[in-house]
Amino acid sequence: MTAPLKVVAVVGSPSTPSKTTALAELILGTLAERADISGRLIELHSLGAQLPTTPDRESAGGAVEEALRAVEEADLVIAATPVFRGSYPGLFKHFFDLVGQYALAAKPVLLAATGGTERHALVIEHALRPLFGFLQAWTAPAGIYLSSGDFDGTTILNPEVYERIEMATADVVPVARALAEVRDRASASGATGAVTVAVTVV
Asked: Within 13 Å, how many C-alpha atoms sit on residue 23's CB side?
């Protein structure tokens, strides 16, 4: 029997409730309708003062270390952040600075962001994709950006958002499942080193 996909959504909002959290929860819910998943939401602000005062991975402990390990062991990561002045907040960047250098290599990451206006929409391509490209992650072709006009409070109103999320999850699920199966086989056989897999999405 195939194990559920381990999906971890990291939300960089400084408080709750937030529009970014609402978006991440909708993506998790859509994934759950499409695949058998074990989903988890990590809101970085909930880590309190411990995260900003962790200078490096060797110093990480408690909830911060546990959150980092959850991301590193996930089959699929949802990286969701609010946008301030054209980029992600420092706490979001600091968290991923602490993730192991190669822990996200070839791992599927679905990019999502929220901002005040459509002027920030290119944050997916100009800020988030380069960050996860440096970490050698496989970023889903379709990113998801929502502006304040797509919400009523934290309720998503724009029906096109649901279509974009359906498209993004349709792209990423087969890749995540294929890579998870390859890792499971490599682990069962005791193989070490990097695993390479070619995945065709139709």
From this structure: 30
Cα(76)–Cα(35) distance, rounded to whole angstroms? 12
Q: What number of other Cβ atoms are within 10 A of residue 198's Cβ? A: 5
**Could you list the pLDDT tens digit for every one of the 202 residues in the chain?**
578 999 999 999 998 899 999 999 999 999 999 999 999 999 999 999 999 999 999 999 999 999 999 999 999 999 999 999 889 999 999 999 999 999 999 999 999 999 998 889 899 999 999 999 999 999 999 999 999 999 999 999 999 999 999 999 999 999 999 998 887 787 777 754 444 444 444 3
Are the C-beta atoms of 82 and 19 separated by less than 8 Å?
A: yes
User: How far apart, in Å, are the Cα atoms of 134 and each of 3, 20, 104, 124, 127?
Assistant: 29, 23, 10, 14, 11
Strands 108-115 and 76-82: parallel
56-to-8, 31, 53, 64, 197 alpha-carbon distances in Å: 22, 32, 9, 11, 31
